[in-house]
Write a structure and sequence with these properties.
9-stranded mixed beta sheet; about 20% strand; globular; 9 strands; about 350 residues; alpha+beta; 13 helices
């Protein structure tokens, strides 16, 4: 009897150990929130079509010097006038006037270069104010055509990012979602990043930007700046350089002044140190919803509203408000067939 009692006791103890163990095994099979988030990470940002990315950049390559970019821009201006100059060659007066206009635009290219050293410029309160920081060896060139304004950003004198603000003619009254669908038709499926906004009626959620990555190291994002500027912006950049530059910004500006929160979000896949159990639905669906205060403030100063900004010299002369009067826009430079889809017209 004692032996039987001991055997019964041992069996009871074994069962007591096996039940929790079985429960733990079952729980282990169920993916945790942390595991789901780790699985998503940067992989949550899908790769864009590599061929289309190269078409978008055109002749511009990462690492190009300021001088090389300026020469490329100069050649574009000359090419845009080539046909007209041939037609005007029989009219000396018209030919001379057109040649003078070409040289004026070429000369303006160098004037549109600005270094972000320490002194505030008009761009510190503009559509690109989240795209650069001071005292980190950053600089920028701007160019305009009859539809878009483009900003070429340099890190230590080397091209690493191109920011395009589309004009209203390109947008054609499309909503940001519609324009995003158009871009996805060309570049492939993007990650949609949502943002929460506090309003009197409560918290609302809206689409903040579309994001793509690439196997070659490029990053691409379509940003909604229509609330204050009536434009949508496409930004292509070298992710590795942007990542290193962000570290420099964090070191030079410990409090985060001048950080590009959108680039950081795309690069890290995590925009703050929030509880890993938050937003599990967003993580599983591929959408990302941020909490109030997680994003950098939106632009609130409006130096222009049509996507065609003033030159660097004009903005600097106007002061922080950046309200200098834009130069006359050449209707020929970069002009494209308006019947084409907006995505077909894109080339930087």
């Amino acid at each position: 009897m004692k032996r039987f009692a001991r055997l019964k006791l041992v069996s009871t103890l074994v069962l007591a150990c096996l039940v929790p163990a079985a429960g733990a095994m079952a729980a282990a099979k169920k993916p945790t929130v942390k595991a789901a988030k780790a699985a998503k990470g940067t992989a949550a940002v899908p790769n864009a079509n590599a061929e289309e990315l190269e078409k978008l950049k055109g002749e511009f390559k990462w690492g190009m010097s300021v001088e090389l970019v300026q020469k490329s821009m100069e050649q574009r201006v000359r090419d845009s006038y080539a046909d007209e100059l041939k037609k005007a060659i029989k009219d000396p007066t018209q030919y001379s006037r057109m040649r003078a206009e070409v040289e004026k635009e070429v000369k303006a290219i160098k004037a549109n270069y600005v270094k972000f050293e320490s002194k505030k410029t008009g761009y510190d309160s503009s559509i690109v104010d989240q795209e650069f920081s001071h005292k980190t060896d950053e600089s920028m060139l701007t160019s305009r055509d009859d539809k878009n304004t483009r900003y070429y950003f340099f890190a230590d004198g080397n091209l690493y990012k191109i920011f395009t603000a589309f004009g209203k003619e390109i947008l054609a009254d499309k909503t940001f979602t519609d324009f995003g669908e158009l871009m996805q038709a060309r570049f492939g499926k993007a990650k949609q990043v949502m943002v929460e906004e506090n309003k009197k009626a409560g918290v609302s959620v809206k689409l903040d930007y579309f994001a793509w990555a690439s196997a070659s190291g490029d990053g691409l994002r379509l940003v909604d700046r229509s609330e204050f500027y009536d434009v949508y912006c496409l930004v292509i950049f070298d992710r590795k350089v942007a990542d290193e530059l962000q570290k420099t910004r964090d070191r030079v500006h410990p409090k985060g002044s001048g950080n590009d929160s959108l680039v950081e979000a795309v690069l890290t896949g995590n925009r703050n140190d929030a509880d890993v159990n938050e937003n599990i639905i967003d993580q599983l669906t591929g959408k990302d919803t941020s909490k109030p205060g997680q994003n950098a403030p939106a632009d609130i100063v409006v130096p222009y509203t049509n996507g065609q900004g003033p030159s660097a010299s004009q903005v600097n002369a106007a002061g922080k408000g950046g309200s200098g009067k834009p130069a006359t826009v050449n209707k020929k430079t970069g002009a494209t067939n308006s019947k084409k889809a907006a995505s077909d017209e894109l080339e930087l």
